[in-house]
Design goal:
By secondary structure, the chain is α/β, with parallel strands linked by helices. About 40% of the residues lie in helices and about 25% in strands. It has helices at about 5-15, 20-25, 30-45, 60-85, 105-115, 130-140, 185-190, 200-210, 225-235, 275-290, and strands at about 50, 55, 90-95, 120-125, 145-150, 160-165, 170, 190-195, 220, 240, 255, 265-270.
């Protein structure tokens, strides 16, 4: 049994397609299929149930892939640790990045990181804070930049707090409340809102604040990106609550401080159990950027 066969099996389990698994592993489909069959013969069990349209792991396949992931992680860590012992940092660094990071200049941090550690391959993933925390705990991410409500800090991971701020009301310049110097949540309760999708950390910040104030709000629009949220506000379709740092200077937009608005905390999070040398180097780079 070879490590490459394990990699093929893991790719097939995650892609559920011989074609996509082969593309991911940079081999032709016939070669990957041959190696999977050879692995099944060696183990004496069927790992994959196949039809012309469907690929699923058998019970034996599920058990094998779970152990194969651990074996591959251990093999990768052996290479990385050997290099680290020689004073070099190498390997892969997978980082989750939410779309609303404002506390650090991520391209600048990565430029400095790459200059110091050119042998590290950096992979960036987009998504939400809660999924990133789960992925770090499961070993699928090395680190992530998070944004969470002040009342819901992350658990089960190491964190460095990057910033803490109150969200502001973002309004069309023509809105009846745009001239106010400050607002309360009650002033906005009757407005149509645009916000991040329900269940996300970005959405929870506003939901928790309105619930704490004993108020209900109507989220008429849900969007995944701040650009789309701001575009809907600019068009007068809704109001929103955002970090002041993500709202661009625009004559069609106004930001107004909220007296009782939600507070948001940004973190850098990483695995608290035996983080890789690359992850430790990233934490150091972020700390230096904030110094």
């Amino acid at each position: 049994m070879e490590l490459q066969q394990m990699r093929y099996a893991v790719a097939l389990a995650e892609e559920r397609s011989f074609t996509r698994a082969a593309e991911r592993c940079f081999v032709v489909q016939s070669a990957l299929s041959h190696q999977i069959k050879a692995l099944e013969r060696e183990l004496g069990v069927q790992l994959v149930a196949r039809t012309s349209r469907r690929v699923e792991l058998t019970a034996a396949g599920e058990a094998f892939v779970a152990a194969a992931r651990e074996a591959l992680q251990a093999a990768d860590r052996a290479v990385v640790d050997a290099a680290a012992a020689d004073g070099r940092v190498r390997g892969t660094l997978t980082i989750g990045v939410i779309p609303t990071v404002t506390a650090v200049d991520i391209p600048l941090v990565l430029a400095n990181f790459y200059a110091a550690h050119p042998a590290v391959q950096v992979r960036l993933r987009s998504g939400g804070s809660e999924q990133f925390v789960s992925d770090i705990r499961a070993g699928h991410l090395d680190a992530a930049f998070l944004g969470l409500a002040e009342s819901t800090p992350p658990h089960g991971v190491c964190v460095r707090e990057l910033s803490r701020e109150s969200l502001v009301a973002a309004l069309p310049a023509s809105h009846r409340l745009a001239h106010r110097k400050r607002l309360k949540l009650a002033d906005l309760a009757a407005e149509a809102f645009v916000d991040f999708p329900g269940g996300s950390a970005g959405r929870a910040q506003g939901d928790l604040a309105f619930r704490a104030a004993g108020l209900h709000r109507d989220v008429a629009f849900e969007a995944m990106t701040t650009d789309l949220i701001i575009g809907l506000i600019r068009r007068g379709l809704a109001v929103g609550m955002l970090s002041a740092h993500v709202v661009p200077p625009d004559p069609d937009l106004v930001t107004v401080p909220l007296v009782d608005g939600p507070r948001r905390v940004e973190y850098l999070a990483w695995n608290e159990f035996n983080p890789s040398p690359a992850a430790r180097a990233l934490v150091g780079e972020v700390a230096e950027a904030q110094a």
